[in-house]
């Protein structure tokens, strides 16, 4: 009998910090959001410590690492400054992402060939601290193969193009995600997926057995405005586990 591996759900709570930083105050609490997400069934908590500190702050990362119960997944650039902080924090997971100053949110996957030396330095430093390193990449064969060559633990496939597409184009983007996931598993990488996913467009991706973890933020935080964060997470977790809404 084949072993069924349940898919995991990581919750990105950056948008909670965005709301807090709008007034530069203390509310809403990032830690409270993380604990609420845990109550709803989150398997990990994701935060992106950006170089411009537009939402998550250094103190948030240290507090989360100390007080949450599920693994912390730190999204980060390959900046030496951010790397130093990551080594001090030693989160269970780190996802290396591209970062542009003027972008509203991460716009695409890393080009693993353009910053190869910086990536090797960052991956080696984090791996030495027993941090599981994933690389946020577009569903492109050469990027998946390069991720394996660089020694990453996992890849997170950027699903933004899939999420934004419609009709035949959406089918093509789904195919790209599926093929990248299959190749990643063949190469010994753990495969995650995220960006732009919501309570509707995630259903087709659940059929990709190679994708073991989904990282979702905006749609869940948006839903939480109306039903509360724990329930919003619970609803998404139910979809991921059962394939039903």
Q: Any idea what the radius of gyration is?
A: 17 Å
Q: Write the H/E string, N to C.
A: EHHEHEHEHEHEHHEHEHH
The CATH topology is TIM Barrel
Question: Per DSSP, what share of the residues sits in E-state strands of 2 or more residues?
Answer: 15-25%
Major sheet details? 8 strands, parallel, barrel
Number of helices: 11
Give the tally of structural domains: 1
Strand order of the largest sheet: 1-2-3-4-5-6-7-8
Helix content: 40-55%
The CATH class assignment is Alpha Beta
* Distance from first to last alpha carbon: 27 Å
* CATH architecture label name: Alpha-Beta Barrel
Output mean pLDDT: 94
Number of strands: 8
Give an account of the 3D structure:
There is one protein chain. The protein has 11 helices and 8 strands. The protein starts with 7 loop residues before the first strand and ends with a helix. Helix content is about 45%, strand content about 15%. The chain is of the alpha/beta class and about 240 residues long. The chain has an 8-stranded parallel barrel with strand order 1-2-3-4-5-6-7-8, surrounded by 8 helices. Helix 10 crosses helix 11. Strand 5, helix 6 (about 140-150) and strand 6 form a beta-alpha-beta unit. The radius of gyration is 17 Å and the shape is globular. It has helices spanning about 15-20, 30-40, 60-65, 80-90, 115-130, 140-150, 160-165, 165-185, 200-205, 220-225, 230-240; strands at about 10, 45-50, 70-75, 95, 130-135, 155-160, 190-195, 210-215. The protein has one domain (about 10-240): Alpha-Beta Barrel (TIM Barrel), CATH 3.20.20.
């Amino acid at each position: 009998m084949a072993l069924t591996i349940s898919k995991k759900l990581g919750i990105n709570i950056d948008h909670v910090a965005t709301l807090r930083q709008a007034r530069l105050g203390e509310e809403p609490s990032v830690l409270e959001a993380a604990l609420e997400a845990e109550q709803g069934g989150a398997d990990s908590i994701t935060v992106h410590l950006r170089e411009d500190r537009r939402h998550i702050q250094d103190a948030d990362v240290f507090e989360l690492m100390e007080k949450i119960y599920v693994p912390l997944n730190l999204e980060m650039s390959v900046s030496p400054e951010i790397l130093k902080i990551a080594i001090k924090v030693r989160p269970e997971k780190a996802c290396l992402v591209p970062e542009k100053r003027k972008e509203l949110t991460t716009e695409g996957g890393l080009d693993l060939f353009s910053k190869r030396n910086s990536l090797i330095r960052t991956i080696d430093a984090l791996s030495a601290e027993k941090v599981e390193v994933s690389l946020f990449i577009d569903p492109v064969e050469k990027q998946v193969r390069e991720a394996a060559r660089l020694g990453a633990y996992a890849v997170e496939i950027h699903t933004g193009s899939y999420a934004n597409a419609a009709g035949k184009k959406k089918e093509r983007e789904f195919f790209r995600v599926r093929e990248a996931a299959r190749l990643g598993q063949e190469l010994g990488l753990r495969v995650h997926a995220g960006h732009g996913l919501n309570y509707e467009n995630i259903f087709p991706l659940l059929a990709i057995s190679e994708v073991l973890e989904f990282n979702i933020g905006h749609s869940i935080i948006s839903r939480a405005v109306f039903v509360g964060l724990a329930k919003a997470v619970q609803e998404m977790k139910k979809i991921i586990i059962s394939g039903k809404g």
